[in-house]
Design a protein that fits this description.
There is one protein chain. The chain contains 18 helices and ten strands. It is an alpha+beta fold. A five-stranded antiparallel sheet has the order 1-2-3-5-4, with helices on one face.
Length: about 375
């Protein structure tokens, strides 16, 4: 019989596995963390906190098996010690995996902050942070690029699901069925009507799907919400970031990872739009609480650091940057879809986001000028 954790039996589960003692039960503090899975933060003492995660079971008692990939990522760093030495400190420390019950115990990083929260609070975007993201991503991609030993180890031992890949996302968007128009609220149908109104957008997404080249290990869900920022990140010798939530890691196209993180930065801009019935799209974009100009140095530094750390990718794939920009557009469309699924709404902000995504997908070369501003020439030379 499967164990289903709750706020009461989680302590029994940890005690049985020697992660805490019965005597500590009354002093341990717990906090539910809002997430798609059951996540509970256990504060054992000032020096030790654990994050206990369990995948949600369906009515048949089954899960999607995503934690396999996260655990396998850690095992991969042990199996290939030279790779592990380069990136282990930038990954979450996984302590225990219970595959039968889909439970993962992670050492909670108390000296890190959530990057999305930091950006929201400060509205400051240091190029030091962006450069660190680009460097880490380049290290992971370049070290595993076209190396079959890594691919075989990762895929053979992890029960990866294929429902969250660039291929599946594009396939879904390319096959919108009439049933969608029967189940969606009327205000959400506008998205699908607008989406299907642009043949150039539909074709760009199809072409992007045909251009995908799985060739290295990718995070596959890269966004600022999945990055932790060290509290002392601005110290010269600090480890600036940590990349978490590897549940969707896969063997994929490196352009997808880089495009997704650029798209996540663009969401910061688009989430701050000033929306009004009397404002045009251009006026809303210009009045955003986080102007694109404020983000452009980070967009450039992240991309430049990545290319400097992985120069071979531009040689192997001359169209690499075009694909990155297109995947950034695809990430924005995903964001619109998620909003529709979760909030059952599609308004002016979603319309503007779709328009920006269309530019990125259909005209990636001209979109680069928009993303990188005056730094664009320095990026391509």
């Amino acid at each position: 019989m499967k164990t289903i954790l709750d706020t009461d039996n989680v302590f029994d589960y940890l005690i049985a596995r020697d992660y805490c003692q019965e005597i500590d039960r009354d002093t341990i503090k717990s906090e539910i963390i809002s997430a798609k899975n059951f996540n509970i933060l256990i504060k054992i003492n000032e020096d030790c906190s654990l994050l206990v995660k369990q995948e949600i079971h369906d009515v048949h008692g089954e899960t999607s098996g995503e934690f396999w990939a996260a655990w396998q990522m850690q095992q991969l760093t042990k199996h290939f010690p030279d790779f592990g030495e380069k990136i282990r400190d930038f990954l979450p420390e996984l302590l225990y995996f219970d595959p039968d019950n889909s439970i993962l115990i992670v050492k909670y990083a108390t000296d890190f902050d959530d990057l999305a929260s930091y950006y929201h609070r400060s509205n400051q975007f240091s190029i030091v942070i962006a450069s660190a993201i680009g460097q880490l991503l380049a290290t992971i991609h370049s070290h595993t690029f076209e190396r079959s030993a890594y691919q075989q180890f990762f895929q053979a031992k992890s029960e990866l699901r294929s429902d969250y890949t660039a291929f599946s996302i594009i396939r879904r968007l390319s096959r919108i069925t009439p049933q969608v128009f029967q189940i969606m609220p009327p205000e959400c149908l506008q998205f699908f009507k607008l989406y299907q109104r642009f043949p150039s957008l539909l074709q760009a997404i199809v072409d992007l799907g045909e251009a995908i080249e799985p060739s290295c290990l990718i995070h596959n869900d890269l966004k600022i919400n999945n990055i932790l920022l060290a509290l002392n990140w601005d110290c010269p010798s600090a480890q600036v970031i940590r990349l978490i939530d590897w549940e969707r890691a896969n063997w994929g196209d490196p352009a997808f990872d880089l495009g997704c993180i650029l798209g996540s930065y663009l969401e910061v801009w688009l989430d701050g739009l000033i929306i009004g019935n009397t404002l045009s799209i251009n006026e809303s974009l210009q009045l955003a609480t986080t102007p694109l100009e404020l983000l452009q140095p980070s967009l450039f530094s992240l991309t430049r650091s990545y290319l400097d750390g992985f120069p071979a990718i531009a040689i192997a794939r001359p169209d690499f940057l075009d694909r990155v920009i297109q995947f950034a557009g695809l990430a924005l469309i995903q964001r619109v879809e998620i909003t529709i699924d979760e909030d059952r709404s599609f308004g002016n902000r979603g319309i503007i986001m779709l328009q920006v995504a269309k530019q990125l997908l259909c005209t990636p070369q001209s979109a680069m000028n928009t993303l990188f501003g005056s730094n664009y020439d320095r990026l391509t030379n």
